[in-house]
Amino acid sequence: MAAEEDSGEFYLRYYVGHKGKFGHEFLEFEFRPDGKLRYANNSNYKNDTMIRKEVFLTPAVLKECRRIISESEIMKEDDNNWPEPDRVGRQELEIVMGNEHISFTTSKIGSLVDVQSSKDPEGLRIFYYLVQPTPNLWDEGSGVVVVVVVFNYDSSSHSVDEVSKSDYDNCNSGNALKSYTGGKTVITLSSTGTMYFICPTAGHCSAGMKVAVPVVAASGSTPSTPSTPSGSPPSGSTSSPPPPPSSSGAATIMSTGLVLGFSLVLGTVLANIS
Predict the structure, then answer these.
(1) How confident is the model at residue 166 (pLDDT cuts 50, 70, 90)?
(2) What is the pTM of this model?
(3) Which of 30, 62, 134, 259 has the greatest number of C-beta atoms within 10 Å?
């Protein structure tokens, strides 16, 4: 399955909408094989206009998307026993992965109560968790895609500090803006600007365990690349602090509520919106 995740065509489209007193209102987006994510949100409430956005995703995003789709096992499900679309609304999910092509259609799902009362609660639950948070994709107030940074680390030897640019440049953890522990830290990026993070364990930041994460407003089409953790800490005596983890355990930048509600690893690139 791992080989399938990394090869072959990948396409994904999700739609949720209904027709009512304000006309056809919907949210729809698709991943195209060329890496473009297209997004549309049409709400006629108070004469709102349709929002259309496009973003080019990095290969790391697409790879993680494929992995999450694969591990969710949604491709093994079918919608024969799912609720039919009705006046409340309609959902559609279409996925192409390699030689597999599958489509799902069901009604809007209000909560897990609807899932549990369906004829196929197990299959519908997979679908529900995959798509449920999608309306959080676009923050109209700030004009940015709402993402989060997720740091996964060994809490016995690492933690996360948010610091100023000056302290980031100088690996100074004495004036941390915020400090996080626990092994998994989730930080929302919902406004433009750059956030700076370091591992405050002695020697770790200077060895490369730090990352600057820019969040870019909807004004361009060229990806921005934050600095990334690299290198290894200098060798020392047995009393030296534990070394930073290997790349497999390094902090991972992820997005939630961006597409289908699943978390997408952005690797080291946050793409601009055009």
Answers:
(1) very high
(2) 0.52
(3) 259
